UniProtKB/TrEMBL annotation:
<dbReference type="InterPro" id="IPR016163">
    <property type="entry name" value="Ald_DH_C"/>
</dbReference>
<dbReference type="InterPro" id="IPR029510">
    <property type="entry name" value="Ald_DH_CS_GLU"/>
</dbReference>
<dbReference type="InterPro" id="IPR016160">
    <property type="entry name" value="Ald_DH_CS_CYS"/>
</dbReference>
<dbReference type="Pfam" id="PF00171">
    <property type="entry name" value="Aldedh"/>
</dbReference>
<feature type="active site">
    <location>
        <position position="245"/>
    </location>
</feature>
<dbReference type="InterPro" id="IPR016161">
    <property type="entry name" value="Ald_DH/histidinol_DH"/>
</dbReference>
<keyword id="KW-0560">Oxidoreductase</keyword>
<dbReference type="InterPro" id="IPR015590">
    <property type="entry name" value="Aldehyde_DH_dom"/>
</dbReference>
<comment type="similarity">
    <text>Belongs to the aldehyde dehydrogenase family.</text>
</comment>
<feature type="domain" description="Aldehyde dehydrogenase">
    <location>
        <begin position="14"/>
        <end position="471"/>
    </location>
</feature>
<dbReference type="InterPro" id="IPR016162">
    <property type="entry name" value="Ald_DH_N"/>
</dbReference>
<protein>
    <submittedName>
        <fullName>Aldehyde dehydrogenase family protein</fullName>
    </submittedName>
</protein>
Length: 476
């Protein structure tokens, strides 16, 4: 059984879970310990005890540790990418790419250690000098989802450590293998005992214990909107700092002047790659009337040609859905769309392949109106719907007609419309002639409305969450 990592030691537990390959349900990847409330408290205490010395550790030492983690991830990207794809279901190329991205994130924050800036200025009062500095927040609880089991933990853990905080890491229950592998690498990077802790287990047990513990100064969470709202309510009730990413119902607008093949590529990649299991996925395709029939016809052809199969097979373009529960949710939404009067153009059926896995043919709906549930609620699977727009202004209004605001895209050759869309789209990230899914690690990530709460993730903007500002006055 793969154990939790607490206070610098590998600690077993009374219970464990089996990690099953969604491409082949007969393939058990391993057994992973389930931490208890008591073990979570031990981890928090260890992190609290380690905080004083860690925050005083010099920047070179911290940078060297982060660099070692990044270097090992990069060197083992094929091995770890295979593990990631085996347990999460994304294609092998996507799994290897995600590990490489995690490596780059740790290396980036190894450099950010040296760029923690302050300010010095004169006071408005004579004889006083003012300094503005950034300090670690303290013990950070990190709760991550299953869809990016290496990249999202990396972009939370790396800045937390870079800025001098201690970490309690709770990964999603479906992907303990990637989390354990990352923790094992971190455990050998030279961090003092207690600075980093891995506590695998149920959100209702481990996550709740982190939310309620007064020694956890901040919580960074990525997951569903329902759980995210609970995280916000519970943590802010005791004045903890909170950063929450919850999802999206992202629009891709296709105007009449769009280059057809490029627009279809954007839609196909954004909607269906990574099996549509991305919070930035293009689940609403808003197409201007003049190009609508040609766009839909081409997209149906391309969607039907997608090769669904075992995540580790070279020919596979779309892997399985992550588990039976998610597959059931996807199929339920497909039926909801049909019942509401939407027209299923292709896909939407479970595929009986050679391996017993959770395979779903990507589904595309037409005749969709904004009031339908499939156009308003996040499905989190390979399901997309097409809405018709009468003009650019109508398309923009449809794009903004959502309770979410994470990513928003447009395909057009008009500089006027592209510029206007970047300004008026109600989203934290805007994409022009590129898929809504796919972001860089050195720039801010986050949304508006129901998608995000708190400061942005990634890049130098991560300092806003992982540090606190102090203003000091000194009399001359």
């Amino acid at each position: 059984m793969n154990a939790n990592y607490i206070a610098g030691e590998w600690m077993g537990a009374n219970g464990s879970v089996e990690n099953i390959n969604p491409s082949d349900c007969s393939d058990m990847i391993g057994e992973y310990a389930q931490a208890s409330t008591e073990q979570t408290s031990i981890a928090v205490h260890a992190a609290s005890q380690a905080l004083g010395a860690w925050r005083e550790t010099g920047p070179q030492a911290r940078a060297d540790m982060l660099e070692r983690i990044g270097a090992e991830l990069a060197a083992r990207r094929e091995e770890l990418g295979t593990l990631l794809s085996r347990e999460e279901g994304k294609t092998l190329a996507e799994g290897i790419g995600e590990v490489a991205r995690a490596a780059a994130i740790f290396k980036f924050y190894a450099g950010e250690v040296f760029r923690i800036r302050g300010e010095r200025m004169d006071s408005v009062r004579p004889g006083l000098a003012v300094e503005v500095t950034r300090e670690p927040v303290g013990v950070i609880g990190i709760i991550t989802p299953w869809n990016f089991p290496m990249a999202i933990p990396a972009w939370k853990i790396a800045p937390a450590l870079a800025y001098g905080n201690c970490v309690i890491f709770k990964p999603a229950e479906l992907v303990p293998g990637s989390a354990w592998a990352l923790a094992e690498i971190i455990s050998r990077a030279g961090l003092p005992a207690g600075v980093f802790n891995l506590v695998m287990g149920k959100g209702s047990v481990v996550g709740q214990a982190m939310l309620e513990n007064p020694d956890v100064a901040a919580i960074s969470f990525t997951g569903s909107e329902k759980v995210g709202r609970h995280v916000i309510a519970t943590a802010t009730a005791r004045m903890a700092k909170v950063q929450v990413e919850m999802g999206g119902k992202n629009p891709l607008v296709v105007l009449d002047d769009a280059e057809l093949d490029a627009a279809v590529d954007c839609a196909l990649q954004g909607a269906f790659h990574s099996t549509g299991q991305r919070c930035t996925a293009s689940s609403r395709l808003i197409v201007e009337r003049g190009i609508h029939s040609r766009f839909v016809s081409r997209l149906v052809q391309r969607t039907q040609a997608l090769r669904v199969g075992h995540a580790l097979h070279a020919q596979t373009q779309i892997g399985p859905v992550v588990d039976a529960s998610q597959l059931g949710q996807d199929l339920a939404y497909i039926q909801i769309g049909k019942d509401a009067g939407a027209r299923l153009l292709c896909g939407g059926e479970r595929l009986p392949l050679r391996h017993d896995g959770f395979y779903l043919q990507p589904a595309l709906f037409a005749d969709v109106v904004p009031e339908m549930r499939i156009a308003r609620e996040e499905i989190f699977g390979p399901v997309a719907c097409v809405l018709v727009a009468d003009s650019y202004e109508h398309a923009l209004a449809l794009a903004n007609d959502t309770p979410y605001g994470l990513s928003s895209g447009i395909c057009t050759q008009s500089l006027k419309h592209a510029t206007d869309f970047k300004r008026r789209a109600q989203a934290g990230m805007v994409m022009v002639n590129t898929p809504t899914a796919g972001v860089d690690y050195h720039v801010p990530f986050g949304g508006r409305k129901g998608s995000s709460y708190g400061s942005r993730e990634q890049g130098s903007h991560a300092a806003e969450f992982f540090t606190t500002v102090k203003t000091s006055y000194t009399a001359s």
